[in-house]
């Protein structure tokens, strides 16, 4: 049985009838680490809030652990762990008090499920008498994860857990998720960071409430249809402009210190360099490059 299943799930907000989530369907297998990848406003939080029974859908249906998100909301609440995007702990309670509070609410004790949080908790335990509001971003995130895990959920929903967290803590956090996965907990995680997408078993790319693609990160990348090039020149702005106006260009955009470009036809590097020289560009570097998830996302958006 799937751990999570969405069937044409929709959410519409306000008078303007914004379709924040538009007929979204996908399933998450038991024990999978599944990523919802998309920019701000894509609809990730709305999906999480519906799946954790905090928000009612306006269309379609969904199940978590085989339970209906509308009819069986009470049972779902006792089975899922939810770490919302915004810091949701009690800032005036200490680390220890927050954890005990969440354990009590779920009718359990910290001792009962300590094995599950131990790896994470030992890192913040030295500060256990510190108030949650006074913790660093990375520590707050670890405490929030402990609180979401303390009742041993079967499905864990993590909404942008690494947003605003430093790169070292981000890496540590993903290492923790891998260890949790080994404990057979299904994890659904959202992120706007494309590099984190590659760490998931499968991903759904989402934009404006619509799913653009669902597959393993490797398959998403492998399905990139064109040859992709990385280009660089002394004057990057002029390079971007010139490539945008090149008759063979299909897609072109800035990408870190390079720009990426793909072509409608099978043009050679010599053709492109000749064209750029005619446009007055000097010191042009051009090489083929392997598409990343971000390139795939950009391609899907432009198509
Ligand atoms: N309560 C609300 N009332 C009106 N519009 C809303 C409400 N909540 C979300 N929206 C709109 O719905 C769309 C999807 O928002 P949602 O928060 O689900 O996206 P997201 O991918 O989680 O992005 P973010 O990271 O910014 O939260 C956005 O256009 C947002 O402005």
Automatic annotation (TrEMBL):
Stretches assigned to the ABC transporter domain: 4-233
GO molecular function, one term: ATP binding
Annotated SUPFAM superfamilies: P-loop containing nucleoside triphosphate hydrolases
Claim: Cytoplasm is one of the keywords in the record: no
Keyword annotations: ATP-binding, Nodulation, Nucleotide-binding, Transport
InterPro entries: AAA+_ATPase, ABC_transporter-like_ATP-bd, ABC_transporter-like_CS, ABC_transporter_ATP-binding, P-loop_NTPase
Transmembrane residue ranges: none
Family classification: Belongs to the ABC transporter superfamily.
Protein name as catalogued: ABC transporter ATP-binding protein
Species assigned in the record: Chryseolinea lacunae
């Amino acid at each position: 049985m799937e751990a999570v299943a969405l069937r044409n799930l929709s959410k519409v907000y306000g008078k303007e009838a914004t379709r924040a989530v538009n007929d979204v369907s996908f399933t998450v297998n038991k024990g999978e680490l599944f990523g919802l990848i998309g920019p701000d406003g894509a609809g990730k939080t709305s999906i999480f809030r519906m799946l954790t029974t905090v928000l009612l859908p306006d269309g379609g249906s969904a199940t978590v652990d085989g339970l209906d998100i509308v009819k069986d909301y009470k049972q779902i609440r006792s089975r899922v762990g939810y770490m919302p995007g915004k810091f949701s702990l009690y800032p005036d309670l200490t680390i220890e008090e927050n954890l005990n509070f969440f354990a009590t609410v779920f009718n359990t004790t910290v001792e009962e499920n300590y094995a599950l949080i131990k790896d994470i908790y030992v890192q913040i335990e030295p500060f256990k008498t510190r108030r949650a509001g006074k913790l660093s971003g990375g520590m707050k995130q670890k405490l929030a994860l402990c609180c979401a895990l303390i009742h041993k959920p079967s499905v864990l929903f993590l909404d942008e857990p690494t947003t605003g967290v430093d790169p070292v803590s981000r890496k540590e956090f993903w290492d923790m998720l891998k260890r949790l996965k080994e404990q057979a907990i299904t994890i659904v995680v959202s992120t706007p960071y494309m590099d984190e997408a590659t760490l998931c078993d499968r991903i759904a790319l989402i934009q404006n409430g619509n799913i653009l693609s669902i597959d393993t990160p490797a398959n998403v990348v492998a399905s990139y249809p064109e040859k992709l090039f990385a280009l660089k020149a002394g004057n990057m702005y002029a390079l971007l402009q010139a490539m945008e106006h090149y008759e063979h260009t299909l897609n072109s955009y800035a990408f870190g210190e390079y720009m990426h470009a793909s072509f409608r036809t099978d043009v050679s590097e010599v053709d492109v360099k000749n064209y750029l020289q005619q446009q007055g560009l000097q010191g042009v570097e051009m090489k083929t490059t392997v598409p990343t998830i971000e390139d795939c996302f950009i391609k899907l958006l432009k198509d």
